[in-house]
Amino acid sequence: MADIQIASIDLAQGLKVKNLVVPKMMAEVVLSNAPKEIKEAFDKDKLIGQKLQSAAFEALDEAKKTFQKAAIATDELFEKKPPKDEKEAEDRVKTLNVICRQIAEAQGGKATKAVEAEWAVYTKKNKDLTKFRALFAARLGLSVISVAVSVAHTVMTFGASSVLAIVGIAKTVVSVSADIYNQVRDISKAEKDIIETDIVLAKVWEDKATNAKIVGRELAAALGVPFVKSISGLQKLLTEYNAKIAIMDKKTEDLWKQSKNLMDVIDKTSKESNPQLQKAIKPLGSKVDELLSKISDLNKESSSYDAFHTAYMARYDTYRSFEGKALGRAAKATEVGVMLPGIISTAKTIVDLASALA
Q1: Model's pTM, two decimal places?
Q2: How confident is the model at residue 32 (pLDDT cuts 50, 70, 90)?
């Protein structure tokens, strides 16, 4: 039995607010361990599949309307009744986060029941019906909803929208930087596993293959079953490593995009007719320039990941050929990770500078 995504929706799509930074908030209805009849309904594009999707979408759309109503009310309150201090501002956002979770859970339950009802009508008495459960997966970036420190002062001094946008994006930059840091640590561990596996394979290969005048199956037999199985293990490690590199590249691209977006907002804000704001925004722009430069350096250095993968793929191909060929050069573990602390530090400084505008 497989999991099937029935419907998904961005709860924040079309939401217009001034004082809140609201990220894309995808919510979806997933049928977990769906029976083969339901899978077939979607694989073969049967009409019942459309009915199940329609039932789920109606519930998700209701969740979207309810959330946006709550978000707009919270946003308007910042202007009608500015918070007395930072704590009150953060408390309001925390309340919105709780409300959002409650909405997701409540509408998720409705979506589940709606899909089950449609399926029950279609199948009438189906013994497999009791075996499937619809799971509402509310994948919401709630932690990204944020307001500036001392929002009341920000609203009165500069106007909320520009400064809040800067702080919100800056916090996202820090979050993505941390994600990249964790990804690099994961890649470093993968490199260690590849190197250790290769050391074992190389020892066996060079001891037996160098002196043997055999190739193919006879060489494979001479090297032994553990060796042959270990080759497959090395292939799996290299495949996973390549996937981790791809994730790293996407996260770095996202960090670059967010940082450029931040610079655009800073440039726009610096042109506002407020001398105090223009003076405060200047060091922030310099720090974002520095961050963009560091991201560019990281992108250049990350090519060493590809070189590492290429080197060990060549060794894997040699092992797999069973031709007794000499191994190529091994690659050392990369050291791209040493650049990440500097990026994270710069990103955090940007948040501090942005928050200080309030």
Answers
A1: 0.53
A2: low
